[in-house]
From TrEMBL:
Quaternary context: Homodimer.
Subcellular location, record wording: Cytoplasm
Protein name, as recorded: Chromosome partition protein Smc
Organism of derivation: Apilactobacillus apinorum
Positions of ATP binding: P32, N33, G34, S35, G36, K37, S38, N39
UniProt similarity note: Belongs to the SMC family.
């Protein structure tokens, strides 16, 4: 499984549709301060279902919608689309290409799609659970999080190891079954 491309439109500093293609090997994004490098990573977090506006450096979720600049008017919708190559079936889905889309409108309406079909946030969470790519996994390591792992309490560190080992999914299913 690997990232194929990321399409960002109306999200944070990306007023116009911007596509980043990930070719084989390493991709590095470079640019001056404030040019939107962190916004690219936040777009990936967001499309994977991030619900915390604080994690995205905002106070409310609509802060992710492009709010205008000296050259562009504000827009009414943020959209991020992440395309994954799943030809190795690493993600438990029959699709060899998986496209995840998230949209948010100023009206508050929001949409999640898997391969252009509308779905629930839960479906996206389930798709990535225990793949090592979902939220709470370690595919995105932000500044300071390495120190957090070293400095965390033993029980918190245990949960980090459980997530990395793929046990978390079963704990979550047990928790859900107990609620039924
Ligand atoms: P650094 O090198 O300092 O880490 P960076 O390349 O990571 O910088 P970002 O933090 O990704 O830069 O981008 C910050 C820019 O994004 C700021 O100029 C900010 O005004 C802009 N920005 C954030 N949210 C929005 C929004 N909703 N609408 C318009 N611009 C936004
Ligand atoms: Mg940055």
């Amino acid at each position: 499984m690997k990232l194929k491309s990321l399409e960002i439109a109306g999200f944070k500093s990306f007023a116009n549709k911007t596509t980043i293609s990930f070719t084989d090997g390493l991709t590095a994004i470079v640019g001056p301060n404030g040019s939107g490098k962190s916004n690219v990573i936040e777009a990936i977090r967001w499309v994977l279902g991030e619900q915390s506006s604080k994690t995205l450096r905002g106070t409310k979720m609509s802060d992710v919608i492009f709010s205008g600049s000296s050259t562009h008017n504000p827009v009414n919708r943020a959209e991020v689309k992440l395309t994954l190559d799943n030809s190795d079936q690493y993600i438990n889905s029959s699709y060899s290409e998986i496209i995840i889309t998230r949209r948010l409108y100023r009206s508050g309406e929001s949409q999640y799609l898997i391969n252009n079909s509308e779905c629930r946030l839960k479906d996206i969470n389930n798709l990535f659970m225990d793949t090592g790519m979902g939220l709470g996994s370690f595919s995105i390591i932000s500044q300071g999080s390495v120190e957090d792992i070293f400095n965390s309490k033993p029980e918190d560190r245990r949960s980090i190891i459980e997530t990395a080992a793929g046990v978390y999914k079963y704990k979550q299913q047990k928790h859900d079954a107990n609620l039924k």
